Amino acid sequence: MLVLSGRPRWRDMFASLKVPNYRLYASGQIVSTTAQGMQRIAQDWIVLQLSGNVADVGITVALQFAPMLVFGLYGGVIADRYPKRRILQVTQTMMALLAATMAALIFTGSIQVWMIWCIALLGGFATLIDNPARQSFVSEVVGPALLRNALSLNSSTFQLGALIGPAVGGILLSAVGGGWSFAINALACLGTVFALGRLDGSRLLPAPKAPRRKGQLREGLEYAARKDEILFTLIVLTSVALFVYTMPVLLTAFADHVYDVGSSGYGIFNALVALGALSGALLSNLRASVSLRTVIVGAVILGFVQALAGLAPQLGIFAVLLVGAGMSQLLYFIASNSLVQMSTNIAIRGRVMGVFVLIQLGGQSIGGPLMGWIVDNFGPHVGMTVSGTMPLLTALVAGVVLVKRRGQTVSGAARRLVQRHV
Length: 422
Fold this sequence. Notes:
The chain contains 14 helices and no strands. The N terminus is likely disordered. The protein has one domain: MFS general substrate transporter like domains (Growth Hormone, Chain: A), CATH 1.20.1250.20. By secondary structure, it is an all-alpha fold. 82% of the residues lie in helices and 0% in strands.
């Protein structure tokens, strides 16, 4: 099934920015994601310096996403049931308070690893509500005609922030410590709340609210399981979330244990991934179509490039492959996100995106400690190679199963057609 078609022209690459509400929303996202990238760099590095253990960085990642793993589907129900703009204002305010608390602890010199873990866990509860609402709110800002373009631009703005954030965060870590990264993120979250409040409500296209009734979680799961475009995308996403999206855990190990480049080098590694991801997000705007085949092939390429990075013999080659990994990650992510959203009825989109985000973020709560254990016991190179090989194999198996499944469907339809004419 071809969900999106028609190759966009270069001049249409930024079509969504013609919508005033989206311009305001996107500008807020750039500031927010830049500050989040700075905070993430500071958080991971501070944990590593306090404990000296890569596995503890993995535990931090796990705690950040554990609420999504356990309660993630309820985030989708909330997104379908309540106004999404109001949800985002509440969650961003919560994140601002948590970031400000971390900044205060660091500035006073009282920060300990267990404190970071507690705040990461609380932030995870805010994220499980924030993400499904954020994913499905884009369609309310731009409408269905510009949704695909807006999704790509959304990822572009995210990656622009992720490109700037790690680099600035690494500089701040070396120059003045990590506390300022958290303080800046607190202000950025409040800026997002302000931007959401400035949106013109009369130009929004709100989805119909789902009435409160039993079985809404099951309804979302059953809907996802019935459609190949959603089901197989989620299967492949599970492997990608477990192994690929734990990149920060791997990069801390390469920066500290392999190349000895310190916090600034760790920031540069993250910036290289984000540079590739930004390129991938922009290129995705020129893609003629998005189908299930696009998603599976994208996962194969992503796994292959990331596995190669684990085998890189030199720092220069490793750096180039990080750019390639970032590009393939974003091309894959935008294809999978677009396919699921465009394949889903708007009335149930929040719940289906809740499943998507549950897998995307919840998988990292398992993958973080797992990759940390692999790195501590077998080394960073093995960890990076495994992180690419597993999604590569999963995508290949999914592709084979899908070909056989659709081949059987076509054969069955042909037999029924012949029988009707005999």
